[in-house]
Amino acid sequence: MTKRILETADVTKDYETRTVVTRALDHISFRVESGEFTALAGPSGSGKTTLLNLLGTLDTPTEGQVKIDGIDVSACSERERSELRLRRLGFIFQAYNLVPVLTAAENVEFVLMLQGVSSAERRTRARTVLGDLGLGDLVDTRPTEMSGGQQQRVAVARAIAAEPEIVLADEPTANLDSATAESLLDLMVRMNHERGVTFLFSTHDPRVMKRARRIVQLVDGRIAEDELRDP
Amino acid sequence: MLVHIAARNLSRGWRRSLAVVGSIVIGLAGCMILVGWSRGFAFQMADNAVRSDLATIAIQARGYQANPDPARTLPAPPDEVLALADGRAGVWAAPRLRAEGLVQSARNSSRGAIVGVDPAREPGVSVIAEAIVAGSYLENGTPRGRQLPPVLLGTALAERLRVGLGDKVVLRVPGESGIGAYRVRGLYRTGSSAFDRIHAYVLLEDAMRLLDTPGRVTEIAFFVDRSQDSLALRDQLRAELDLDAFEVLHWSEREPRLAVMIDLMDQMGWILYGFIFVGMAFGIANAILMSVYERMREFGLLRSLGLGSRRLLEMVLLEAVLLTGVGTVLGLVIGWALVTWMGTVGMDLSMFSEGLRRWGIGTTIYPSLTLDDAITPLLLAVGTGLVAGLWPASKAVRLRPAEALRAT
Questions:
Q1: What residues of chain A have any CB closer than 8 angstroms to a CB in chain B?
Q2: B401 CB near a chain A CB, below 8 Å?
Q3: CATH number of the domain that A105 lies in?
Q4: How confident is the model at residue A41 (pLDDT cuts 50, 70, 90)?
Q5: How large is the ipTM?
Q6: Residue B354's pLDDT is what?
Q7: Partners of residue B186 on adjacent β-strands
Q8: Which pLDDT value is given to residue B144?
Q9: Residue B117: left (phi > 0), alpha (psi -120 to 50), or beta?
Q10: A42-46, A123-127, B274-278: least confidently modelled range
């Protein structure tokens, strides 16, 4: 049974400089049900990252409401928003995904540490997840010694280990070669199928869109098209 | 893990960290050396004063300190008061009979302090016996016959009187029988030229004869070893004596100006520490602030992962405290080692000997530190690190995660 896990109601986001106000999102109303594998598509500047940031509680809307599993994020304190991110959300960014001074295992363990998982358990979980993703040899490796694809997979491992309900990914394949991008997508699809994790990702990569079961097209901060499809 | 991240972040910018740690180490070690020197000077001044004339504690007749009239002798036989030192470890006592008077030679005369001492006991409380540079110290029971009684003069006084060993001098004190001829038996030189210019030492019995106070003394001088608590001993002695008749005075009460001066030198040390720590605070704040600006995206990432603002604040503060802590511990260790070494070998300042002797300081300074000189800076360092880290930490905390992630 699905539930409405992400929702925006008439959300607007303006960025202001001293002289100019730029509208990044213009009255967006949008929902994601649990278990979806949804792509936010659109050209650069269409508002994909802004929408992801709002849904991920990394930013606040100028107008409108953002809800996560029915909780109005706009009404939450900063501390409550941190707690939401920690317990329910996972993030994969286009680049700079990992804490550079930590090894792959420590990066995965970091979120578990914040969640209060015991030292022994987080060590086991981190190594298991990294092993599952074919990164068993890199547990003690720092990000600077990994390829872009390896770093993205560690970021996925970190997201999986924390067992979030929703993973928000901002252009996750943008810096990857085709083979690595495909393997990362396989991984995300498997997570979605096996664990029921909801994926919402921004992309303009046709390979990613091909795998998505729903594509929401954004143009100039508005939803131009919302298409359900069979991948 | 936050400590882990903080420590690794510091090692990531190791050049910057090294520069900050280096400046803390140099500043703190330098400061400790200055404080050690200042303490060494202060200790030397106090020690010279105590070991030449003041004594650690003096027991006198009530009123003698305010009006040092030789007629105000102790209202008890000296042996009774001397017995108070018996059985106390690290405590020596000696009787003294003192009077202001005039020292005359065939060529010149000078105001002087004439002090009668017991040569058997006096070396326990003063350094005069060790400070003899010509001739010899006084001895009890010297057969006299027609010989003149012996006197010890400071080299500066002997120069002023233009006398040498074997020469005759006349001591005059107020009173009917207050005149006597003495022969210079020895010349002494202490760390204080002012002291050497004034004091003439004679045997206690000769001083009693000169001052016409048979069997009486004006003070019992106590020397208390540094291992003992001299103030506690003073209080004990006060409890054992009739304070209507006696005064028991610590050297700091007899020479309050010297005590204030030493205290002032101590305060100067803390002022120095203050300057060092204010300078350190700016250096640390600058280093951490640069590190914060460089890691905006990292902070954005950490916030997006659920790191709360309080823990982010803790993490940045930890970096500041670690940086300060490492610098401070190293600075203290190096500073302490240098001061200990200097205190062991002594710093020879004989090229400034005349100036130093005028201040009552010897030519060799032994810098020293107390445990407090290490503990207080350590606590101050943690405080400085926290205060210095607050500014950059608050900058990091105020960042909105999305904004931080956009940072380049």
A1: 53, 56, 58-60, 78-79, 82-83, 85-87, 89, 91, 93, 96-102, 106, 109-111, 113-115, 158
A2: yes
A3: 3.40.50.300
A4: very high
A5: 0.87
A6: 66
A7: B135, B152
A8: 66
A9: beta
A10: B274-278
Residue B77 lies in a domain: yes
Tokens representing B4 are 């882990």
Residue B249, in any domain of the structure: no
- Rounded to a whole number of angstroms, the distance between the first and last alpha carbons of chain B is 26
Residue-number span of the structural domain to which A55 is assigned: 4-228
- A-to-B residue pairs, Cβ atoms closer than 8 angstroms: 74
User: What SS3 state is found at A33?
Assistant: strand
Are B75 and B44 in a shared domain?
no
pLDDT at B107 over 70: yes
Same domain, B269 and B345: yes
Q: Report whether pLDDT(B279) > 90.
A: no
Residues B220 and B306 in one domain: no
Do B215 and B99 have their domain in common? Answer: yes
Cα B41 to Cα B62: distance, rounded to the nearest angstrom? 32
How many other CB atoms are there within 10 angstroms of residue B181's CB atom? 12
Indicate whether B22 and B79 sit together in one domain.
no
Shortest CB distance from B402 goes to which of A58, A98, A99?
A58
Give residue B331's domain range.
2-49+259-406
Element (H, E) at A72: strand A71-72
Q: Is the pLDDT of residue B40 over 80?
A: yes
Q: Which residues of A touch B303 (CB under 8 A)?
A: 58, 82, 85
Residue B58: inside a domain: no
CA distances from B344 to A199, B133, B191, B375 (A): 72, 25, 19, 22
CB B112 within 8 A of CB B160: no
Chosen domain end from B191, B210, B242: B242
Same domain, B68 and B45: no
Q: How many domains does chain A have?
A: 1
Instruction: Show contacts of A72-80: CB within 8 Å, 24+ apart.
Output: A78/B308, A78/B309, A79/B308, A79/B309, A79/B310
Interchain pair A86, B400: CB under 8 A: no
Which one has a higher pLDDT value, B167 or B289? B167
Both B216 and B327 in one domain: the answer is no
In a domain, B80, yes or no: yes
- Nearest CB among B9, B307, B403 relative to A101 is that of B9
SS3 B359: coil
B67 with B93, same domain?
yes
Tally of structural domains, chain B: 2
Inter-chain touch A96–B5, beta carbons under 8 Å: no
Across chain B, which distance is largest between two alpha carbons, in Å?
106
Quote the pLDDT of residue A224. Answer: 92
